[in-house]
Design brief:
Blueprint: H1 2-33, H2 36-42, H3 52-55, E1 62-65, E2 68-71, E3 99-106, E4 108-115
Antiparallel strand pairs: 1-2, 3-4
């Protein structure tokens, strides 16, 4: 009987993980592919399902960069321009992440300083959907 309960819990956790992953993918797509928070703010609306503090992290307009419309203050660049990936190193017992960026645009420049992820706005390299009409 104990094996059945354990198997049922494992299956319930697997389904919960699938649900959480689907939710995370949907939020990521909305925020960083479809740019819903930027579009909402550019249209004078508050982004749906987002508190004011989080919404304030997104720009409220678009600008042209390399022939494409991107959220104001964001830049187009390759991921390897932003982070250094260290292969072949073992993870420490406690995993911590420190990101070092050189000249990452936030309006003001961060010049080879360590920054927490909350200070950064993402850079986009795939083609972006057209900006909303003014």
């Amino acid at each position: 009987m104990a094996g059945f309960c354990k198997g049922a819990r494992i299956e319930a956790n697997r389904r919960m993980n699938e649900t959480l992953e689907a939710m995370a993918r949907a939020i990521f797509k909305s925020w960083f592919v479809d740019l819903d928070p930027v579009r909402a703010r550019a249209g004078g609306r508050e982004p749906a399902g987002m508190d004011a503090e989080t919404a304030a992290l997104f720009p409220d307009s678009f600008e042209e960069e390399e022939g494409r419309m991107v959220p104001r203050g964001w830049e187009i660049c390759a991921l390897n321009d932003l982070v250094k990936l260290a292969y072949g190193k073992a993870l420490k017992e406690v995993f911590t992440m420190t990101l070092t960026f050189s000249m990452f645009s936030l309006g003001d420049k961060i010049d080879s300083k360590k920054a927490s992820a909350s200070q950064l706005r993402p850079s986009l390299s795939p083609p972006l959907p057209p900006a909303p009409a003014p």
